[in-house]
Write a structure and sequence with these properties.
Largest sheet: none
Order of helices and strands: HHHHHHHH
Number of helices: 8
Helix content: 55-70%
Distance between the termini: 46 Å
Structural class: mainly alpha
Length: 149
C-alpha cells in the first residue's frame, strides 16, 4: 500500500495540484482533512492554524519533495498522534472510503492515499523496529554464551 502511494506521488505535477490550489477558503471536509494531514506529517506534527497556513506552508514547490522524504520509520510518534487525532475528527468518519471514491489520478486520491498509508503503516513499522532491536539483543546474548562455552 505504501509503495503504491509513494509511486503515485511521482505522478503529481503542477496541473494536478492546481485543483487543490483553487480552493481559497472553506475547503470541502475531505480536502481539508487530507491537506491538514500532509501538513502535520511533513512539518513533524506542527498543526496548522488555518487553511491559509496550509496553503502557504504546504502547497508550494517543495511539497512533493517533502512528501517523498517521509517514511514510516522517520515519522515521529508525536506527529503520528497528532495525525491520529486529526483524522478522528473527520466528519465523514470513513476517511479511507471517501478517498477511494475520488478519481484515481486526482490530487485528492493520490495525496489522500499517501496520508492514509503512512497512518496505517506507522504502527507496523514501529513494531518491526522493536522486534529487530529485540533480535539484535538476543543475538548479542547468544554470542556471549557461545564464547563462554
Amino acid at each position: 500500500m505504501l509503495k503504491a502511494a509513494k509511486k503515485a506521488l511521482d505522478t503529481l505535477d503542477s496541473s494536478i495540484l492546481a485543483e487543490i490550489k483553487t480552493v481559497k477558503k472553506n475547503p470541502p471536509p475531505l480536502t481539508e482533512c487530507i491537506m491538514y494531514g500532509v501538513s502535520i506529517i511533513i512539518r513533524n506534527g506542527a498543526i496548522p492554524k488555518d487553511w491559509g497556513e496550509v496553503m502557504k506552508k504546504v502547497m508550494n514547490m517543495e511539497m512533493k519533495k517533502n512528501m517523498q522524504k517521509v517514511s514510516p520509520e522517520s515519522f515521529p510518534d508525536k506527529a503520528y498522534k497528532r495525525l491520529q487525532k486529526h483524522l478522528s475528527k473527520y466528519n465523514g468518519k470513513n476517511f479511507q472510503e471517501d478517498i477511494a471514491k475520488q478519481k484515481k489520478k486526482s490530487a485528492l486520491y493520490i495525496i489522500g492515499m499517501w496520508v492514509w498509508s503512512l497512518y496505517e503503516t506507522h504502527d507496523i513499522c514501529k513494531e518491526v523496529a522493536e522486534k529487530k532491536e529485540m533480535c539484535a539483543q538476543l543475538t548479542i546474548g547468544l554470542q556471549g554464551k557461545e564464547k563462554a562455552v
